[in-house]
């Protein structure tokens, strides 16, 4: 990961160097390899770099393009950058580096704000368009990379982490509405608000255009998941083949890197699938593909035996970390400080220890199965949406029958749990209206 910083002075004066430097210093952990700044007439951009593609100084950011026509600060990776670069070269574009960063800038020149529709990746960036005198900001389709912002009477500020913005806030209060949502239902990421009053997220799949002359900004959604009617025509075998093909292609693209790549391996279906496919696509003959597993100290939640089975079957270099209770205690403050907002369980700690091990192994890129369960609706919290759909299409008795059948088959979700999620969903819907 990398880190981005940005300050805009609404009074149209030059940003003080120590202001943007202090913001950048708070995210050194995101980018230990390099640091850079860009100063405009009334704004400043900062960057901390973790070098992944083109490790040379040609990847330095903020990066300018076409005689400083555009300047970007960017966190993320555009996995299909080679394909886009080839397309742009056919239009006559020239490149000075082997980075995906430069491809983004050229894409913006070619396709404007629609360039994001070409990208397959994860990103949070801000591009200064000198001619239009705007900042074009964007966040990837599923919000993998963070982008926070806040504004005061005198400034508009954005960054990769909330801690970068706190010193600009006139007051620091908890967002009570979001806190109540979390305590009542455990819901997160359902609005653009954060747990800090006055600090917001640029939501996933949204662009922001900030006018540096008027200091007005507009946020617009550029992507939504559309129902593909053709999928309804697929039988089970065809559906499985389609998922398999797309998953293999996604993993192949994500293995593009100029540094060591590994994967997280919990032992579950999602991470095991990623590890197995990645190990087959991994082309380094000198060493095995690395997989890291965090072993639970509780026997009831210990999945290490499954991780070992996958590692043996796929010939992986399995690294197992076994954090003790004392390890948890010693790292509570660090995890809370890094995470910044409340989280729902101790799995965050296990992931922290996995990433710590990856750092020790100098493994800068880690694949992960995060999101696999959500994609296939693997959690019981998604059942209420299905039951509501059943109720709408088939009536009350059919819905109740299905709920009872689900509970009989040892579903973890009780009738009370279902009602809680339904009420929560209705409450959020009413509040949004």
Describe this structure in words.
There is one protein chain. The model has no long low-confidence stretch (mean pLDDT 90). It is globular and about 65 Å long. It has 433 residues and is of the alpha+beta class. Helices cover 37% and strands 20% of the residues. The protein has 13 helices and 16 strands. Helix 5 (236-254) crosses helix 6, helix 6 packs parallel to helix 7 and helix 11 (383-394) packs antiparallel against helix 12. Strand 11 (206-211) and strand 12 (217-221) form a beta hairpin. A 6-stranded antiparallel β-sheet has the order 2-3-1-9-8-10, with helices on one face. It has a 6-stranded antiparallel β-sheet with strand order 4-5-6-7-11-12. It has a 4-stranded parallel β-sheet with strand order 15-14-13-16, sandwiched between helices. It has helices spanning 17-25, 81-90, 100-111, 176-185, 236-254, 269-281, 304-314, 325-339, 347-360, 372-375, 383-394, 396-408, 415-432; strands at 3-9, 34-39, 43-49, 63-65, 70-78, 121-129, 134-139, 148-151, 155-159, 200-201, 206-211, 217-221, 261-264, 290-294, 317-321, 365-367. The two termini are 36 Å apart.
